[in-house]
Amino acid sequence: MIEEMDRDDRVFLMGEEVGHYQGAYKVSEGMLEKFGPKRVIDTPIAEAGFAGVGIGAAIVGLRPIIEFMTWNFSAVAFDQILNNAAKMRQMSGGQLECPIVFRGPNASARQVGSQHSHAMEHIYAHVPGLKVVAPAFPADAKGLLKAAVRDDNPVLVMESETLYGFKGDVPEGEHVVALGKAQIVRAGKDITIAAYARTTHVALEAAATLERAGVSAEVVDLRSLRPLDDNTLVASVERTHRLVVVHEGWPYGGVGAEIADRVQRLAFDALDGPILRVTTLDVPMPYSAKLELACMPQPDRVVATVLRALGREQS
Amino acid sequence: MSAEKRAPLTRAPAHPSVQAPARATQAPSPLGANPELEHLSKLYRQMLLIRRVEEESARGYAEGKIGGFLHLYIGQEAVGVGAIASLRPDDYVITTYRDHGIALAKGMSPRALLAELFGKVTGCSRGLGGSMHMFDKEHHMLGGYGIVGGHIPIAAGVAFASKYRGDGRVTLCFFGEGAVSIGGFHEGLGLAALWKLPIVFICENNEYAMGTPISRSMSVEDVSLKALGYGMDRDRFFADDVLEVERRIGEAVQRAREQGTPTLVEVRTYRFRGHSMSDPAKYRTQAELEEHKNRDPLARARRRLVESGLGEPGDPRLDDLEKSVEAEVADAVKFAHESPEPGLDVLEQSTYSGPFAY
Fold first, then answer.
1. Is the pLDDT confidence value at B26 over 80?
2. Closest CA to B189 of A314, A258, B197, A225
3. How many domains does chain B have?
4. Using the beta-carbon criterion (under 8 Å), do A180 and B357 form an inter-chain contact?
5. The sheet that has A40-42: what strands, in order across it?
6. Do B161 and A61 count as a contact with CB atoms less than 8 A apart?
7. Coil, helix or strand at residue B83
8. What is the pTM of this model?
9. End-to-end Cα, chain B, rounded Å
10. What ipTM is given for this predicted complex?
11. Which domain, by its residues, includes B35?
């Protein structure tokens, strides 16, 4: 964010606690001091209000970054994102652009209960007019955010709350990751596991376990959910002939369902078995640590699902 | 902060007719010789144009050429015309779904507007928006919005951008009194007041939120009171006289431009038609409607022009003006009727800037 704000004075950051508090998760640490209150703007608790302010500023040429303290709270700004950000270009007949980034932590956050654990990407990826990305690694978090800020459309960046402490190499300076490009983070030949954000790490852990069981799993980190990189997915499935999709959030109509539809259409002949999903269980997230872990996609559930997809049920 | 300023609801006094200055008494004279008269005739022309375009819209709807929702501005013309007359051309305007009159007042051509209503590719929004989404970037008309109150934070954002850039522009945000109960109104006003944004919020109080009178939708009758909780300036008046609307909104615009502070203005008006074309407006009496029609700001402006000497026998000026409006409207209807419909190719390219994100 700092590099993009240095690069373009139309970019500003707005949200709850982004300034004086340095960010609820310290994401914007030091930014108020560097850019001042004109460009790092604390807001009252009014998501619909400041999401709308961002959209208004965007349609007249600024490039706002609007932070939700968590994506859960975007629910009260849903009208702004659904009806205004996503529709602005269409309902103005292409006259107005809405170059805005909405970002913040998303999905499970360890025992915060049903209202604070939503995986909101499924809801937003449904909406034409929006782009949705979900990085799994620090380098991609930087590169995708830069691409999002430079994009002329509304881009929603879903940062996994539980990955804020994850460490990894981040290229210095100009590092832009194009939206809509998946990456293979582990090569394999027996099955493809598609995942994104936190579940990419779950998939990698499962793949390591599977390797010990003699299964070679390829892990595709989607990075971008809309646009979705069909090509990388299909190419992988054409090599492995099987697919398991892993994501947080509920199964009904989610990103996994969309991927299952596309891959069965685009690579039907390559498939040797049904596409299976590992998702958050189809219930509101419970508080109990034991129940929460049971609800969330875990490596053991991924391993079991992969073995089922391969017709090798665990004994 | 003069938050207590102008609490009482005032009706403009019977306005003295626009007097021609001594040097211009020899009628007929070019209107340019009398700036005030010329100004009023310009506003009258805009109001008449809106009235006539709206009547043609109603006709087009009845004939099945216009689909969906159609919310007419008939009766409220003085609000949009008077308010926008107080702006600079580069100031921003944003409003609700009752947006035809506001768009025309901001400079949109009747051709672009009627073609949009007819669903044609030559419409302002290429036939993708329809009645509720009148956008004209060139004239800084930032749209009509269909979700009540949703555009109010956007308006605050437009004003935020003006402050951010220091461009000296003012934003006018129109909405009905029905929007005052929804969160977007309160969040938009709260942020505009907190951040001292150059914006004027104009509540066009036409007394009915669809079919619900204000007495059954708000705990207070005075919408402008809502400004007090935000420490915002306010004003409140009837829109009988377009020049009074211009003057009063102009005060708020000046405050926004010079002091960078917002104002909530409640303008009491009345729509002569139902909420939309499907509304027979049975919730109000004929007597009430007639009483308001007797105060029609359009007729009032015309009377004043006549009293000022326009339209005297042998003076063709008013007649010429009205004929020019008829010609412009007839041309726009013809244009809309003859324009082509959009092709399917418009769909994907209007959804995203750049390649479609699938």
1. no
2. B197
3. 1
4. yes
5. A40-42, A11-15, A63-67, A101-106, A155-160, A131-133, A224-226
6. yes
7. helix
8. 0.93
9. 51
10. 0.95
11. 31-348
